[in-house]
Amino acid sequence: MSTIKIGIITVSDRASAGVYEDVSGKAIINTLNDYLISDWDDVYKIVPDEQDIIEKAIINMADNEKCCLIVTTGGTGPAKRGVTPEATEAVCDRMIPGFGELMRVESLKYVPTAILSRQTAGLRGSSLIINLPGKPKSIRECLDAVFPAVPYCIDLMDGPFLKCDENVIKPFRPKKK
Predict the structure, then answer these.
(1) For the chain, which domains are there?
(2) Would you put residue 23 in left (φ > 0), alpha (ψ -120 to 50) or beta?
(3) Neighbours of 22 (CB within 10 A)
(4) In this structure, are residues 41 and 6 in contact, taking their beta carbons and an 8 Å threshold?
(5) What is the DSSP pairing of strand 4-11 with strand 69-73?
(6) In a structure prediction context, what are the per-residue pLDDT tens digits for the chain, which is 177 residues long?
(7) How many Å apart are CA 78 and CA 124, to the nearest integer?
């Protein structure tokens, strides 16, 4: 069996230009390393807040790199250049709005501005794409909330079996009869 591939896309004009280090993408990698026992490799990219570039990065990770999961960070707020949800919706076959709904509910426990967030999730082929906020603390809070559903979603798409450290995160999988 080949190693599982997970895509991480940081959407940031400044990080893509080298103005500052990408801490958000690294926060996703660190969180997934905490969660997953399965061997996995990241397919990592930093892109500017340009819808066509974001779309191309997602398409490449889903169609060519065969990532079962693609996690984006950044570009989900109301700023004019925040277009990650639009890019995600443009390339997905189907949307799964429950991910964004749960992330906003979780974030509201910490900040009242969570209602401004436009995170979403969708499916492209055999890939699950999840949009996360840009702050590392918020990334972990949101992933802690939604990740229990991720392995089963990937199972349903005939993707690889994601084995988790259940002392850190407990995935939900229905009991087999």
Answers:
(1) 4-156 (3.40.980.10)
(2) alpha
(3) 20
(4) yes
(5) parallel
(6) 578 999 999 999 999 999 999 999 999 999 999 999 999 999 999 999 999 999 999 999 999 999 999 999 999 999 999 999 999 999 999 999 999 999 999 999 999 999 999 999 999 999 999 999 999 999 999 999 999 999 999 999 999 999 999 999 999 999 877
(7) 25
